[in-house]
């Protein structure tokens, strides 16, 4: 990922291009950067909300910061299997329980149009994604056309998803 303070990593990504990044470390750093830059919307698709990429205190903090900055904030997370998240615990699951009107996690049953990438979108402008069958991810902080395509696909799948009872916190 580009670091403006380090000339060896400052690639100055031109608008409309994607920068290869390592998974999961740089991928997570890109997610944090997108969350910090977001004005209103975050969209995440990951079949199991992989711990290596998404269970980060810094990412949860950046998303909580977005919630504090914007009353119109909307964070949506789409998964297809919640077992690992429930069994191991997950910072984004905890955040969704603390901020249920802002951070929503829904489950998508098997569907022929499931994405072949895990990804995070910021305001339908910025994007970080990794093909499920690849080792490398890609960061496109200002690739509006590509991000808009991912956003449209995400929203269509979101409309077919449902709340997962396994994610509710049981209080006794």
UniProtKB/TrEMBL annotation:
Residues 26-170 form the DUF7931 domain. It holds the Pfam family DUF7931. It comes from the Bacteria. InterPro entries: DUF7931. This is DUF7931 domain-containing protein. It comes from Candidatus Litorirhabdus singularis. The lineage of its organism: Bacteria, Pseudomonadati, Pseudomonadota, Gammaproteobacteria, Cellvibrionales.
């Amino acid at each position: 990922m580009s670091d403006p303070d380090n000339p060896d990593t400052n690639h100055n990504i031109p608008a409309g291009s994607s920068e290869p990044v390592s998974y999961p470390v740089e991928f997570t750093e890109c997610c944090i950067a997108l969350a910090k830059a977001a004005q209103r919307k975050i969209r995440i698709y990951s079949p199991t909300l992989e711990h290596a990429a998404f269970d980060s205190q810094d990412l949860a903090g950046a998303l909580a910061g977005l919630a504090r900055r914007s009353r119109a904030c909307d964070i949506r997370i789409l998964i297809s299997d919640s077992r690992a998240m429930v069994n191991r615990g997950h910072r984004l699951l905890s955040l969704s329980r603390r901020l249920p009107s802002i951070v929503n996690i829904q489950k998508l049953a098997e569907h022929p149009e499931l994405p072949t990438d895990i990804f995070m979108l910021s305001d339908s402008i910025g994007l970080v994604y990794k093909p499920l069958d690849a080792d490398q991810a890609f960061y496109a902080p200002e690739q509006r056309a590509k991000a808009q395509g991912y956003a449209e696909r995400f929203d269509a799948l979101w409309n077919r998803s449902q709340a997962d009872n396994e994610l509710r916190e049981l209080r006794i």
